[in-house]
Amino acid sequence: MKTVTTPEEVRAFTAALAREGKRLALVPTMGFLHEGHLSLMREGGRRADVVAATIFVNPAQFGPTEDLARYPRDPEGDAKKCASAGVALLYTPEPAIVYPPGYQTWVTVDEVSKGLCGDRRPGHFRGVATVVTKLLALFRPQVALFGEKDFQQLQVIRRLTADLELGVEIAGQPTIRETDGLAMSSRNAYLSPDERRRALALSQGLFEAQAAAKAGETKAAVLLARVRARLAQAEVREDYVELRHAETLAPLEVLAPTVPGRLLVAGFLGKTRLIDNVAIALG
Ligand code: PAF
Q: 148: Cβ below 6 Å to ligand 1?
C-alpha cells in the first residue's frame, strides 16, 4: 500500500490506473477505523480492480462546540488496517491541503440536509458535501462506498452526485454492529463502561419498533414511543427519534406498504452523541 498526502500524487496514481483501464473504488473516512470501514474497503475490492481510501478529519463538518480536537486518531494502526483490507492507495492530506488559504467554494444540498442531524449540527452537511465532492472530483472513482449508519449523509451524497452529474456509483452498505447490536462508530471509543451498556438502548429501541411494524403497527407515534421508552429506561438523552421516507427523508405519519420507511435515532450519553437507524416496513 502506498500512502500519499498531496493531490498531485493522487492524480499520478489514478492516471496510471486509467491508462491500464482499471476500475477504482473509493472509501472516504475520518480514520480511527473499525470493522464498518474495513467492510467497505473489502466490498470495494469486490466491485473494482483497485481500492483507494482517504483519512481526513474534516474540520468543515464540525461545529464550534463539537469534538474536532478530541476526535480519536490512530494513523499508524489505521494504515495497517487499510493495508490488510486490500487498500492500494491511502490519501491522508493535511487540512491546509484540502482548504488552502483563500479557499471559498462550498457545496450545499438543500432538502435532504434539513431536519435530523442537519438541524442539530448546523453546517455539518455543507462540510460533508464539500469534502466528498472534492474527493470524488480528485479520484474520479467508478464507485464510492459509504455506510448506512450515517443514513442522512448517504442520502446527501447520493443527491449531490446525481445533481452534479459526477458519474460515480454510490454504494451504501449495511451498518456493521457489535455482537450485542450496538452500531459500530469511532465515537463509541468515548463511552465509559456504563455508557457503553446504556448505549444499547438505541439499537434495541429501533429493533423493537421494527418488530412492531412487522406485526402490523403503522402509526409513527406508536413506533417512536417504543424507541423513546427504551432511551428513557437507559437514561439516554434523546436528540431525535423520527420516522422518515427512506429516499426523500420526508417525515412519515404512518407506514404504508409501498413506502420505504427509515427509523432514525440520535441520543446523548454524557457528552457523546450516537446515531443509529434501521429500515422499517410493514410485515
Ligand atoms: O462518514 C465519514 O466518516 C465522513 O463524514 C466522510 C464521509 C468521510 C466525510 O468527511
A: no
CB 116 within 8 A of CB 240: yes
Q: What is the pLDDT of residues 215-261, one digit of tens each?
A: 999 999 999 999 999 999 999 999 999 999 999 999 999 999 999 99
How many other CB atoms sit within 10 Å of the CB of residue 173?
Answer: 18
Query: Is-above-0.85 flag for pTM?
Result: yes
Q: Do the two domains 2-173 and 186-277 of this chain adopt the same fold?
A: no
Is 150 close to ligand 1, i.e. is its CB under 6 Å away?
yes
Question: Can you state the angle between helices 75-84 and 35-47, rounded to 10 degrees?
Answer: 40
| CATH code that applies to domain 186-277 | 3.30.1300.10
Q: Is 38 left (phi over 0), alpha (psi -120 to 50) or beta?
A: alpha
**Which atom of ligand 1 is the closest one to the Cα of 30?**
3
Would you state the pLDDT for residue 283? Answer: 84
Residue 67: per-residue pLDDT: 81
Q: Which residues are catalytic?
A: 37
Listed by start position, the domains of the chain span 2-173, 186-277
> Residue 58: CB within 6 Å of ligand 1?
yes
Q: Ligand 1 pocket test: which of 67, 113, 117, 131 has the largest number of ligand atoms within 8 Å of its C-beta? A: 131
CATH class of 2-173: alpha beta
